[in-house]
From TrEMBL:
InterPro entries: Integrase_H2C2. It comes from the Eukaryota. Pfam families: Integrase_H2C2 (PF17921). This is Integrase zinc-binding domain-containing protein. Residues 73-105 form the Integrase zinc-binding domain. It comes from Armillaria solidipes.
Length: 105
């Protein structure tokens, strides 16, 4: 099962640059900005250490990723690239399932 594969989150969440880009992105992404401004009205989300979290289908905490850039690269694109590097060529469906174990957008 892909959900039990290598942990993708540690490769990104541990990076200060990644965390800074995510937090900055929350101010730029329309939906994420609304959640940050009034979290009590959006009960599917919670804020911890300035980061927005929600639950995946298995009830596990996943990081909400805004549509933003880190330098000149899309943060979402970087996550996709990291998953591809970690998994290899599993195809869209299996890669998507794997990513959803740690991230939501």
């Amino acid at each position: 099962m892909l959900g039990s594969g290598p942990d993708l989150s540690f490769k990104t969440v541990e990076s200060d640059e990644f965390v800074t880009a995510i937090k900055k992105g929350y101010t730029e992404d329309k939906m994420m900005k609304i959640v940050m401004e009034n979290p009590t009205e959006h009960t599917l989300f919670r804020i911890k250490d300035g980061m927005i979290w929600t639950k995946n289908r298995k009830g596990e905490d996943v990081l909400c990723v805004p549509r933003t850039l880190m330098g000149d690269k899309s943060v979402i694109g970087m996550i996709l690239d990291q998953a591809h590097s970690t998994l290899g060529h599993y195809g869209y469906q299996r890669t998507s399932e794997y990513i959803r174990r740690w991230y939501w957008w």
